[in-house]
């Protein structure tokens, strides 16, 4: 290794002068081949660069000079074309014995037997090749290949600074990155989107490759390693990725790589050879990438992504570019690519520029998906190996209805997508036309359809959809988008704006549901619930709010002031026992007293409600019922607790069906237990926004749904086509003696009646 470093170092020292000189680009390339040739003692050194899709001999020492700018090879043609096509080095004792060998008489290369070539890579794409040749047949030593690869990095910088290549005129690493690809996944937020890939954590472009001061570069890497390790340890304790299942495995791998001494040592050696910290990290990563590519093992490929992630993280630390794509001038048609995201991270994106999201993980009720739904951004999740097929800037047609994403689509796919988009627009227009239609069933039952919201920007959809009101305003979204705890006046302003915009329509404000997968950076500490092993079942929502009394009081006061002179609907999340409801209500009543004593204007009336998300509450509804005006069934949490299946665990995302007899019977029992009480019951979980699930809920007796705004039109359309007596009878029948496939039975039922259910 020592000599690899020395060889590369002496070349780099000489190249440094060339790079800094004022010579023109061609003269520089001529000097480069001389320097490499001399230092590696090679009889031939040549540089091929990509021009107009062909690899052209740009400079050589040892081959015929008359071949320069004359010899041109297509991608995949000859040894040079093969190196560029595969982005892989070749090391051959006898070049002519290789099946891809192609003899070009004008070069005069017949006397040279051995051949070693490495790709020149820019932004992960081959833009040329650097080749050495010898008369004597021999395989090149690893140290020589290493030196060539390091020099190829410097060349990549030189040719890009000198505009010697067209950045768009480059090749991709493998057919995975060149050919059109159709990826499939789980539609998490339905919709269509066309745009270009943007990585949530963008790759860093390395500006300088050759170091001025090796010691300084070493220090920069040490510091970056420290920071990165700290960040990974923190991630493990704060569950940035959520907890459980795959996340933990990922974090374990991250930790293993972050503390891997071998990795750090190899970066150090690359610095010794004269590279900057950034270039050294990239150099080591390139080498690993090439080695891994030779191993065809999906598990290893997965681990490779982890190391890529980490290497990228280290690059960002060292270069000081630590933001995500959200803060780096997002393009106007971004299709965001990530392993997973937190809801707060997604909220950082400009919703006008963000057209779609594709995740390797994700589940239907993870809060990031709920946020995306609120933002009206289609999401495709569970796309395995996603980052192995997509590159920054690739064109993508996302069909999160059918569950596919077409990367680098061909003309036929584009045409089909456009026709689907046109149909989609037509359908949207039909739904928009239902704005003023009352959702009433064929037998005259009025079904109330409310929307779920959480941001100021969501409120206009209330009028656009003609929904009956806001059935769930997730107040914690404001907390998630803030860098600090929102002060009372900011809260009041938001609530007042929402009420003003809603006009006569009711708005149900849910008090903050922080915790679980909605963690707040500024609320962290020993007491923020983030150390819980199971945050979704931990210190969150009302449990946290009741103990952080200051937070709850501030929110209560803000809501009361905002609703002065009007009706305030307030709802408490995660009520597990009736006393929690009493305690929360008491905070509001206390604030009322305070405002009254100050002679402030009060709400005309307050209606208190509870969310039913914890199954235990269902057993004491008789105790709770006299205290509340309304109950909202939060099926996202309720089902995760009923099934003991973490709602954000991607491995369980497809395991349990909302249309299962257990959930259906549970909800029906809740309704029956509330018979005779004057309590409005709503379902506000994500399932209510899906037509088939809504159909089943109506069959159980639910008459109020609070759903994502995009589902209002489709639901209105369906409601108008059903007869509640019929669906109630069918549900009773199916639940009395559960059919094996309730979903299938509902589909058949809907289709027999010409009711669209998708
Ligand atoms: C629910 O749990 O169903 C719900 C509506 O609340 P959230 O999704 O915000 O937890
Ligand atoms: Mg909930």
Structure description:
The chain is α/β, with parallel strands linked by helices. Helices cover 44% and strands 16% of the residues. It is built from 27 helices and 22 strands. It has an 8-stranded mixed beta sheet with strand order 7-14-13-9-10-11-12-8. A hairpin with a 2-residue loop joins strand 1 and strand 2. The longest helix has 25 residues, at 214-238. The radius of gyration is 31 Å and the shape is elongated. Mean pLDDT is 88; it is low at 168-173 and 239-246. Bound molecules: phosphoenolpyruvate (PEP) and magnesium ion. Phosphoenolpyruvate (PEP) binds next to strand 16 and helix 22.
Write a brief structural summary.
With 758 residues, the protein is of the alpha/beta class. Helix content is 44%, strand content 16%.
Index terms:
8-stranded mixed beta sheet; alpha/beta; binds phosphoenolpyruvate; 22 strands; 27 helices; 16% strand; 758 residues; binds magnesium ion
Low-confidence stretches: 168-173, 239-246
Tally of contiguous helical segments: 27
Radius of gyration: 31 Å
Q: What is the number of E strands?
A: 22
Structural class: alpha/beta
How are the SSEs ordered, and which strands pair?
Elements: H1 2-20, H2 25-40, E1 44-51, E2 54-61, E3 72-74, H3 78-86, E4 90-92, E5 114-122, E6 125-134, H4 142-161, H5 175-178, E7 181-184, E8 186-189, E9 192-199, H6 214-238, H7 245-258, H8 261-272, H9 277-293, H10 298-319, E10 334-338, H11 343-347, E11 354-359, H12 367-375, E12 379-381, E13 395-399, E14 404-407, H13 411-433, E15 448-453, H14 460-465, E16 470-474, H15 476-481, H16 488-502, E17 507-510, H17 541-547, H18 549-562, E18 567-572, H19 578-597, E19 605-612, H20 615-618, H21 621-624, E20 630-633, H22 635-643, H23 661-673, E21 680-683, H24 691-700, E22 704-707, H25 712-719, H26 724-736, H27 742-752
Parallel strand pairs: 9-10, 10-11, 11-12, 15-16, 15-22, 16-17, 17-18, 18-19, 19-20, 20-21
Antiparallel strand pairs: 1-2, 1-6, 2-3, 4-5, 5-6, 7-14, 8-12, 9-13, 13-14
Helix pairs in contact: 1-2, 1-4, 6-7, 6-8, 6-10, 7-10, 8-9, 9-10, 13-25, 16-18, 18-19, 24-26
The structure holds phosphoenolpyruvate (PEP) and magnesium ion (MG).
Phosphoenolpyruvate binds at residues 370, 472, 474, 513, 613, 634-637, 684-685.
């Amino acid at each position: 290794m020592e000599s690899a470093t020395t060889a590369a170092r002496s070349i780099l020292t000489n190249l440094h002068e060339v790079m800094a000189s004022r010579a023109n680009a061609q003269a520089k390339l001529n000097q480069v081949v001389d320097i490499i040739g001399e230092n590696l003692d090679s009889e031939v050194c040549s540089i091929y660069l990509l021009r107009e899709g062909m690899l052209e001999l740009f400079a050589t020492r040892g081959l015929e000079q008359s071949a320069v700018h004359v010899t041109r090879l297509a991608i995949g043609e000859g040894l040079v074309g093969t190196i560029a096509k595969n982005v892989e080095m070749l090391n051959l004792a006898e070049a002519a014995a290789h099946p891809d060998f192609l003899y070009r008489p004008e070069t005069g290369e017949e006397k040279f037997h051995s051949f070693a070539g490495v790709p020149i890579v820019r932004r992960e794409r081959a833009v040329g090749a650097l080749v050495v040749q010898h008369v004597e047949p021999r395989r090149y030593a690893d140290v020589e290949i290493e030196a060539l690869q390091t020099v190829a990095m410097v060349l990549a910088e030189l040719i890009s600074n000198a505009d010697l290549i067209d950045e768009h005129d480059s090749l991709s690493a493998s057919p995975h990155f060149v050919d059109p690809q159709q990826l499939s996944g789980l539609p998490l937020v339905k919709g269509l989107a066309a745009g270009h890939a943007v990585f949530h954590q963008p790759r860093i472009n390395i500006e300088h490759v050759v170091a001025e001061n090796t010691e300084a570069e070493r220090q920069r890497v040490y510091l970056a390693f420290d920071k990165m390790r700290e960040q990974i340890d923190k991630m493990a304790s704060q569950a940035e990725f959520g907890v459980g299942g795959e996340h933990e495995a990922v974090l374990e791998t991250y930790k293993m790589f972050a503390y891997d001494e071998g990795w750090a040592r190899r970066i150090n050696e690359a610095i010794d050879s004269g590279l900057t910290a950034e270039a050294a990290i990239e150099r080591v990563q390139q080498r690993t990438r090439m080695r891994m590519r030779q191993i065809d093992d999906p598990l290893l490929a997965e681990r490779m992504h982890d190391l890529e992630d980490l290497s990228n993280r280290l690059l960002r630390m060292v270069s000081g570019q630590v933001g995500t794509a959200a803060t780096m001038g997002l393009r106007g048609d971004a299709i965001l690519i990530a392993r997973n995201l937190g809801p707060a991270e997604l909220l950082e994106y400009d919703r006008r520029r963000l057209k779609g999201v594709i995740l390797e993980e994700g589940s239907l009720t993870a809060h990031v998906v709920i946020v995306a739904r609120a933002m009206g951004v289609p999401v495709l999740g569970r796309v395995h190996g996603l980052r192995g097929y997509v590159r920054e800037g690739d064109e993508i047609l996302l069909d999160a209805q059918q569950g596919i994403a077409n990367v680098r689509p061909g003309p036929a796919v584009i045409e089909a997508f456009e026709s689907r988009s046109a149909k989609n627009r037509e359908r949207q227009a039909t739904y928009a036309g239902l704005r003023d239609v009352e959702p009433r069933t064929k037998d005259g039952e009025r079904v109330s359809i409310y929307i779920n919201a959480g941001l100021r920007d969501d409120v206009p959809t209330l009028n656009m959809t003609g929904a009956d009101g806001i059935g769930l305003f997730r107040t914690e979204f404001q907390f998630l988008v803030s860098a600090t705890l929102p002060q009372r006046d900011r809260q009041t302003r938001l609530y007042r704006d929402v009420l003003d915009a809603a006009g006569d329509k009711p708005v149900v404000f849910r008090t903050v549901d922080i915790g679980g997968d909605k963690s707040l950076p500024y609320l962290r500490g020993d007491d923020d619930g983030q150390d819980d092993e199971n945050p979704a079942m931990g210190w969150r929502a009302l449990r946290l709010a009741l103990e952080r009394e200051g937070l709850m009081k501030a929110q209560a006061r803000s809501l009361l002031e905002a609703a002065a002179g009007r009706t305030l609907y307030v709802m408490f999340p995660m009520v597990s026992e009736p006393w929690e409801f009493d305690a929360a209500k008491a905070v509001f009543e206390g604030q009322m007293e305070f405002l009254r004593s100050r002679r402030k204007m009060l709400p005309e009336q307050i209606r208190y409600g509870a969310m039913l998300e914890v199954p235990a509450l269902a057993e004491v509804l008789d105790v709770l019922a006299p205290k509340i005006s309304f109950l909202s069934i939060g099926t996202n949490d309720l089902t995760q607790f009923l099934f003991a299946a973490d709602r954000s665990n991607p491995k369980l995302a497809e395991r349990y069906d909302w249309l299962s007899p257990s959930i259906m019977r549970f909800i029906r029992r809740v309704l029956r237990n509330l018979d005779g009480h004057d309590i409005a019951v709503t379902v506000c979980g994500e399932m209510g926004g899906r037509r088939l699930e809504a159909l089943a809920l109506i069959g159980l007796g639910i008459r109020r749904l609070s759903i994502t705004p995009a589902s209002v039109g489709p639901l209105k359309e369906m409601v108008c086509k059903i007869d509640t007596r019929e669906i109630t009878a069918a549900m009773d029948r199916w639940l009395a003696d559960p059919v094996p496939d309730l979903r299938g039975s509902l589909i058949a039922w809907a289709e027999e009646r010409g009711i669209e259910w998708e």
